[in-house]
Amino acid sequence: MVKGLLDWLDERIKIRDLWNDFADRPIPGGSSWFYVLGASLLFIFSLQMITGILLAMYYAPTPDHAYASVKFIEEVAPFGSFVRGMHHWGASFMMVLVGLHMIRVFVFGSYKKPREIIWVLGIGLIAIVGGFAFTGYLLPWDQKAYWATVVGTNVAGTVPVVGGVLLRIVRGGTELGAFSLSRFFAIHTYILPWSLALLAGLHVFLLERAGAGGIWNAADRVPYKAEPLFPNQIFKDTIFIAMVFIALAGLAVLFPAPLEPQADPTDSTYNPRPEWYFYFVFQMLKIFEGKLELLGTVILPNLGVAVLLLVPFIDRSPERDPAKRKLMMTAGALFVATVIGLTIAGARAPIVNVPAVTSPSVLAGREIYARNGCSACHSIHGKGGKIGPDLTHVASRRPDADWHLKHFRDPRAVVPGSIMPKVDLSDRELRELTDYMLSLR
Amino acid sequence: MSEQDVTRRNFMIRTIIGIGAFIGVAISVPLAGFGILPVLRKRDAGWSDAGTAADLLTDEPQERRFFQMVKSGWQEERMERTVWLVRKADGSVTAFSPNCPHLGCGYRWFSQDKQFKCPCHASFFDIDGKVIAGPAPRALDTLPAKIESGKVLVKFEIFQVGTAKKTAA
Ligand code: FES
Fold first, then answer.
1. Chain B contacts of A175, Cβ < 8 Å?
2. What is the pLDDT of residues A293-338, one digit of tens each?
3. Can you give the pTM of this predicted structure?
4. Got the DSSP string for A150-212?
5. Which one of B82, B84, B115, B161 makes the best mutation probe of the A interface by having the most chain A beta carbons within 10 Å?
6. Tell me, what's the pLDDT at A357?
7. Which of A224, B89, B107, B161 has the highest CB neighbour count under 10 A?
C-alpha cells in the first residue's frame, strides 16, 4: 500500500531522490549533540505557530477587549492557561536556544567560507525572534505590556532627526492606543511569521547547498568519518526536542504565563520591568545619562548588530579550530560576558519603591469603584458627585478595614440615617474596594 | 543565437523587469501611504479641568486625574489623564506632564526626600522638575496651566521623550 503510493509519487515527482538527497546529506566528522540546536529551533517555531494561531481565535486586538480576552483565555477557556503558557515560555526558550545556536556556530567556525551568507541570514533571524518577543509583549494589554512598550517604543523616538516620525509609525500615533495594538498584532501574526518562515527556509536551503560544516578537523581525521543526516543526526535532534518539549510543557503547567492588572496609563505607582531577555537592553538604558543617552538607545545596539553581521567578513582566515583562533574566541567571550553581565545587573536593578504601595487589590478596587458608578455621589480629587462625602482622604478619617466592610454591606447599620445604598458585591470585591478606600489618605 | 534573437531576448528581459518595477512602485506608494500616513496626524488639545486649586498645598506636589476626549482612529475616546500639580508660595501652579522625559515611564513624588523619582531607570528630579540624578536628558515637561474661577485648567499634551529638547509628539 505505502509502497504503491510511493511508486506512484516517484514516477511523477521523483520523491525518493528528494528524500535521499535530504536524508543522506553527509555530516563531516559525524553527528553530534552540538548540532541539535537548529532543529530544536525549527520545532519551537512550529509550536509557536500552532499555539499562536489558537490564541488568535479568542484574542481581540483592541484596547477595550484585549485584556478581557486574555483573561478569558487564562481563566475560563479549557487548556487556555496551558496554551498561553506554552506560547509564553516558548518565547523564552527561543531566545536561549537561538543564542546558544549562534555561540555554537561561532565556536565551530562554521560561519566561514562557504557559509557566510547563512550566518548573515542567522543574524536576521535573531532580529526577527527579538521582534516577536517585543511585539508579543503588548498584546495582553496588562501593566507590564503597556509600560514595557512605552519605554521600548520611546527608544525608537530617540533616533536623531527622524525619531519623532519613526515613533509615530511604530506606535501608530503619539501614544499607545487602538492603533498600536492592531499594528503590533498585524506585525506579530502576519509580518514576522512570514518573514521568519521564509528566512529560516532560506537559511536551511542554503546550508543544504553549501553543505554542513561539521567538526573543524573532520578532513584530517583518520579514518575519515562522516554520518548521514538521517537517521544519525535526526535521532539526536529528536531526543533533544523531546527534552525541550517536556521542559516547556512542565513550565507551562507549573508556572503559567503571568497576567498583571489591566494597563493603566495614569498609574504612577507601577514599577515597569521588561521580560528577562531584554534586561541587558534595559540596563544599557540606565547606564548612559543625559546627552549620552543616544549611545545606549541607538548607537551601541546598532553597532552590536553590525559587528555580528560582519563577523564572517572580518575573520576571513580559513582556520576553524577554536584553539587556533584565540583573538576571535576572546572577542566572542567578551561579547557574551557583556550581555550576561548587563542582564544580571538589569535583573538586580534596585526598584524605586512607592511611598504608598499600590497593590493589585487596590487597583482592582479602583476599577470596582469606577465600574459601579460610585463617583455619581462621591468625589475623589475633585472628580465626582457631591451627594455623598468626599473620599479624597477617607482613609485618614476611617482607617479601619472592618468599618468599611460593615459599612458597604449595610450603610445604615454603621451610619444611622445614611442614604447610601447597600453595595451588592462579592466578599472578595468588597475587600478590594476597602483596600482602595484605605489607600486614599 | 542570431543577432535578432539576442535583441528579442533582451527586449523580453527588459519588459519583464520593467513591468515588475512598475507594479512594485505602483502598489508600494499607496500601501506605504496607507500604513503610515493615518498615524502621523497631529491632534490639538483643549483645556481640561484638573480639579480645584484650593486643595493644593504649597510645595507639596499632588497628582490629579481627569478625563480628556481624544479622537483615536475611528473612535472618540474618553482618556483618563494624570498630571502633577505644584503650587508655589506665590500661589502660582505648575503642571508637569506625568511621563518621565527619559523614556516615558510614570514617576512619583516622595515627600520625605522632596524629590520626584522615576521607577524605570531611576531618574530623580527636584520640585521644579530639574534633573538631580539619572539618565533623563532634560527637566520634567511643564504643561500649560491656568487657574480660572477656582479650578486648575491644564492643556494636556504629549511630548517626545529621550531628547534634550522638549518637542510636542
Ligand atoms: S523612563 Fe524614567 S528613568 Fe527611564
1. 158, 169
2. 889 889 999 999 999 999 999 999 999 999 999 999 999 999 999 9
3. 0.81
4. HHHHHHHHTSTTTHHHHHHHHHTSSSSSHHHHHHHHHIIIIIHHHHHHHHHHHHHHHHHHH--
5. B161
6. 46
7. B161
